[in-house]
Structures are given as structure tokens and as C-alpha cells.
Amino acid sequence: MTAVHEIEAAGPMGRGIRVWFAVLGGIPAWAVHILFVASMARYTCVHGRTWVLHLATAVTAAITIAAIALSANLVRVARNAGANDPEDEAASPDARLLFLGTVGLLIGSINLLLIVLEGAYVPFLNRCVT
User: Fold this and answer.
1) Do 77 and 3 contact (CB within 8 A), yes or no?
2) 3-class secondary structure for the chain?
3) pTM
4) What Rg value do the Cα atoms of the chain yield, rounded?
5) Which residues form the domain of 87?
6) Which of 58, 79, 81, 111 is the most buried (most CB within 10 A)?
7) pLDDT digits (tens, 9 = 90+) for 91-130
8) Which of 97, 102, 105 is nearest to 6 (CA)?
9) Residue 82: inside a domain
10) Which pLDDT tens digit goes with each residue over 9-19?
11) How many domains does the chain have?
12) Is residue 14 part of a domain?
């Protein structure tokens, strides 16, 4: 049994983690980050505890990096199974995993960029107006 078929035949939890977290995991991480940073901005500005925002950026970036790593694994597994062959059927399990892994890499990279950019303004919060 190849790695592609192992992923395809996995139960709902195994497939959910290996495929769907890989593809979509960066989206909720980014959403949690932007909501947390926006809601805590004033508090950290007044009390000078910007480390909380740095921690939120690090945790959500780590979750997104884990999703990107799982997406890269999907692409690797699909390519090792021959998903790049021109004779490969468009609806084969190999092609599906290659597509989902590629989409996951794109989504994860965009969300990681957003998280890092949002975290980049944290050093400027100590200059807020009280």
C-alpha cells in the first residue's frame, strides 16, 4: 500500500489532520491572531505588556508553519507516487493530494505572511496615546 493510499484510506481524524489541517490550518491561526492582537492592543499599550502580543504571534505562526509542513509533505507524497505523469488521471488520488498540498502551501504562506506583518507593528505600541 502506497503512502497516497494510506492517506486516502485513513479515518476521519487521520485524514482531517494530514489533509484538511494542512490545507486550511493557517486560516483560523491568522483569524485568532488578528482578533487577539486587535483586542489586546489597547491593554498592552497602557500596561506595557507587549510580550503577550509577541507570544500570540509566535504561537499562531508556529501553527501555520506546521500546516505548511504538512502541505509540503502532501506534495512530496503525491509526487513520489507519480502525480506529475502526464498520463495521470485528473481525478486520481495522487493528483488530488498534489492539488490540495499545493493549495495548502499557498494558503499557509499567505497566512504566515499576514501573521508576521501584523506582529511587526507591536514594537510601535508603546508610543500610543493615553
Assistant:
1) yes
2) CCHHHHHHHCCHHHHHHHHHHHHHCHHHHHHHHHHHHHHHHHHHHHHCCCHHHHHHHHHHHHHHHHHHHHHHHHHHHHHHCCCCCCCCCCCCHHHHHHHHHHHHHHHHHHHHHHHHHHHCCHHHHHHCCC
3) 0.82
4) 19
5) 26-127
6) 111
7) 677 788 888 899 999 999 999 999 999 988 877 766 665 5
8) 97
9) yes
10) 566 666 677 78
11) 1
12) no
7: in domain: no
Answer for the pair 44, 52: CB distance below 8 angstroms, yes or no.
Answer: yes
Rounded Cα gap, residues 26 and 66, in angstroms = 9
Long-range contacts of 40-45 (CB under 8 A, 24+ apart): 41/125, 42/128, 44/122, 44/125, 45/125, 45/126, 45/128, 45/130
